[in-house]
């Protein structure tokens, strides 16, 4: 990979993984507009590792408490708010994980077109705007129930449609259920950890099975650039969320989706 290709894809993955603008909608642009070749699975694994490191670092205290509480419940039957949150994250992860395994081939075959991505970018952007405008925002993570976790997890299944945005649809569901913006975003980010880990591991297994040579220099830069950009993006997004809301991201999605449809048609 040349430097421009490596830089652009790393930054796209890092910046768009966690904000509600759809990373798949952005990752299609360089290849469509600039004719760049596929970056390969090794590089995909690298940028997934970078974004995983970023979200773990950003939420290290919460993650340590949740993991410790969950292990305490599993090993010693000591229930706590942290163990409960750990089980809720697992529950919320299951629907998308199962749907991804069952429908992976159909998704790859029928939903990767620019027309689908552009349409999903617009439609789910408008749904996000409606949820942010109409949501009560009077519930925080400490008041989350099993029903909340399951419904947000079911909504995450829609992220299998390219252009939906995993973070966008989970925040949308949480806002619809009455959560405040920071709680919606925080739970979305915590939910991302097992899915990013699973996606990166799956790609790594495919890479090993195929025996493709990895360009270790490219992978190292991909990890570093996606890590730094994702970490900064998480911090800036959370810091500005209550002040700016979701509207700027909705407007951006409408512009991006319209452009993708224009190119597709």
TrEMBL record:
Keywords: Antibiotic resistance, Cell membrane, Cell shape, Cell wall biogenesis/degradation, Hydrolase, Membrane, Peptidoglycan synthesis, Transmembrane, Transmembrane helix. It catalyses: di-trans,octa-cis-undecaprenyl diphosphate + H2O = di-trans,octa-cis-undecaprenyl phosphate + phosphate + H(+). Pfam families: BacA. Signal peptide: none annotated. GO terms for biological process: cell wall organization; peptidoglycan biosynthetic process; regulation of cell shape; response to antibiotic. The chain crosses the membrane at residues 48-75, 87-107, 113-133, 145-164, 184-208, 220-240, 246-264. Belongs to the UppP family. Catalyzes the dephosphorylation of undecaprenyl diphosphate (UPP). Confers resistance to bacitracin. Bacitracin is thought to be involved in the inhibition of peptidoglycan synthesis by sequestering undecaprenyl diphosphate, thereby reducing the pool of lipid carrier available. This is Undecaprenyl-diphosphatase.
